[in-house]
Every structure is written in structure tokens, then in C-alpha cells.
Automatic annotation (TrEMBL):
It comes from Mesorhizobium alhagi CCNWXJ12-2. Keywords: Repeat, WD repeat. This is WD40 repeat domain-containing protein. Gene3D superfamilies: YVTN repeat-like/Quinoprotein amine dehydrogenase.
């Protein structure tokens, strides 16, 4: 039976993550809590809005209302790596060779490892950000679609159009597809080779969490009373195929998903704080955590594939050890 080590914090957890095997919990007030031989706390942003891990998994990159981007290491030391004046930083993404992207208003910026920063201005606000898995390319979710930039060159950006407000973005692990989350309770995708569209609709709520399976054959998503898992193994992605529906519960929405690092299993967090694991092959479920005090907002597996850090909107955080 899995065991849960709880960490009761006060405030909305933006990100739960492992840095060098140490569980970290970044809260909206800018405090970063870690369980490292006891409960320790450090301070990053004054009002934290977004967070991600760098590609080495060694630093937590955060942005917030103070117009600053911080990098926090496993020792809790937070260093300012970029600033945007008095503007709120609403999205961050981590790229290859230590590159960082961040968005404020209509602008997206890329900060390279040598400290150079490049600005990309869009007609409407830059919402979600993501780097491609290969090469120096990043995508910006925006109103009426997405824009793909090549920040290391002066190359013309690729414009992917689809009417509506796009709020989040992700590249498939093989780099063949881009998927955005929309304000209209839907996902939209593009096959990059030919620009073919992929419509993924029918969600009763907004999709706020996306996670690719280990080999990129599946994309798990929140926004329904089950984890909706779209198949991406074919050359046209999920077109004409039905998604899996895992962990269906009639009385609580899925609010967070985190695919296992190597197996086709997904951890599913719900609005009532419950967490389960479900297997793609046969939909078998294991209860990992009983309902708690708030909706699960973030989850991450550790490198050893036996622990899951989780956080909730009520600060109801902790670590699940699936080996008991």
C-alpha cells in the first residue's frame, strides 16, 4: 500500500517538483518549501505565478508579479536570472543549453546562457510557452493560435492559426506535433510536417494540466471527470481515434496529470485532493492518496520512479511513496 508523507502549508501550490531527489513545493506567495532532512523554506518571487524545472532537473525556474525570473537550486538558494521591470511574468519555460523563456504582456523573451536576452513581440498577449525537444525552437500560445520562433537565428517564425484563445502549449517528445490548451474547454493540435489540424474537444472544463507518456505515444490531460489520454502513436496523432478515459469518477474533476517516467502509467489528481495511478493497457487503478483539502495543482515523479510529489490549491502538499 502506498504511503503518504504530508506537508501542510498555507497557500496555493504552483509547482511540486524534485530537485536532486529533494521534494520542493513552490507557493503563490513566493516561498519555496523543501523536505531536506526536515522542512526548510526559502524565498523567491514576491507573488509567484509560474514555475518549471530546467532541463537538467537541477533548478526550479519561477516568474511572478515582481517582474523577476528566479532560478532556485536544491540548496534553496534563489538567484535572479532575468527581469522585466514592473510587468508581471505570467509564463516561464526552460530550454536546451540553459536557455529560459518568459512572457509578459505581448512579449516573449529568451535568455541565453551567456546572459543575452532576445524579445519577440506578438499582436496579443503571449500566454503559454514551451521549448521544442530538439534544437533551439520555442512556441508561444496566443490568441488565434500559436507562433514558433527560432531564437538563435533570424529565421521567420512559423504561424499556426486556429480561432480562439490559446492559453498553454506543449511539443510532443519527438517534435512532430504541437498541442495547445484553449479557453474554450478544448485542445488543438498541429502536425508540423504538413500543418494538419487536430481537434480534441468535449471537455466539460478547461484543460490546465498536460503530460506526455514516456515515449510520447500518449498525451494525458485534465478537465474532465477522468484523465483524457489521446493516442499519438500514428502519423496523424489522435485524428479519428477515441481517447482513453482513465480513473473516471462521477463526483470529482481531474485537475492534474503526471505520466510515469518510463511506463505507460499516469498519476491522476482530482479536485477533492484524491490521487490515483492508472495503467493505459487495462485501465487498472491504484489508490495513492485519499481526498484532502484542495484540488491537486501539480505532481511530479522522482527519478527512481517510486515517489510522487504533489501540491494542492489549499497548500495540502506531500510525497507519496508508491512502494509503501
Amino acid at each position: 500500500m502506498p504511503t503518504v508523507a504530508p506537508l501542510d502549508l498555507s497557500g496555493h501550490c504552483i509547482a511540486a517538483a524534485f530537485l536532486a531527489g529533494v521534494p520542493h513545493f513552490a507557493l503563490a506567495d513566493g516561498t519555496i518549501h523543501r523536505l531536506d532532512h526536515g522542512h526548510k523554506t526559502s524565498q523567491a518571487n514576491d507573488g509567484l505565478l509560474c514555475a518549471t524545472l530546467d532541463q537538467t532537473g537541477a533548478k526550479l525556474i519561477t516568474g511572478g508579479e515582481d517582474g523577476k525570473v528566479f532560478a532556485t537550486g536544491p540548496d534553496g538558494e534563489a538567484t535572479i536570472v532575468a527581469e522585466a521591470g514592473r510587468k508581471w511574468i505570467t509564463s516561464v519555460a526552460a530550454g536546451p543549453q540553459g536557455a529560459i523563456a518568459f512572457a509578459t504582456g505581448r512579449s516573449a523573451f529568451v535568455r541565453f546562457t551567456d546572459g543575452r536576452t532576445k524579445e519577440f513581440v506578438h499582436p496579443r498577449s503571449a500566454e503559454g510557452l514551451a521549448f521544442a525537444p530538439k534544437g533551439m525552437r520555442f512556441g508561444v500560445a496566443r490568441y488565434n493560435g500559436a507562433t514558433l520562433h527560432f531564437p538563435a537565428t533570424e529565421g521567420k517564425p512559423v504561424e499556426l492559426e486556429w480561432a480562439g484563445a490559446h492559453t498553454g502549449i506543449t511539443f510532443s517528445p519527438d517534435g512532430n506535433f504541437v498541442v495547445t490548451a484553449m479557453q474554450e474547454n478544448a485542445l488543438h493540435g498541429w502536425k508540423l510536417a504538413d500543418g494538419k489540424h487536430m481537434r480534441m474537444t468535449g471537455y466539460p472544463a478547461k484543460v490546465k494540466s498536460l503530460s506526455w507518456s514516456a515515449r510520447g505515444k500518449w498525451l494525458a490531460s485534465s478537465g474532465a471527470p477522468a484523465a483524457i489520454v489521446w493516442p499519438f502513436s500514428g502519423k496523424d496523432g489522435p485524428m479519428g481515434k477515441a481517447p482513453l478515459e482513465l480513473g473516471t469518477r462521477g463526483n470529482s474533476m481531474v485537475t492534474s496529470v503526471a505520466c510515469h517516467p518510463s511506463e505507460e502509467i499516469v498519476a491522476i489528481g482530482y479536485h477533492d485532493g484524491m490521487v490515483i495511478a492508472a495503467r493505459f493497457a487495462d485501465s487498472k487503478e491504484v489508490l495513492l492518496r485519499r481526498p484532502g483539502k484542495g484540488a491537486i495543482t501539480s505532481m511530479m515523479w522522482d527519478e527512481d520512479e517510486r515517489r510522487i510529489a504533489f501540491g494542492s490549491e489549499a497548500g495540502d502538499c506531500g510525497v507519496i511513496d508508491i512502494t509503501g
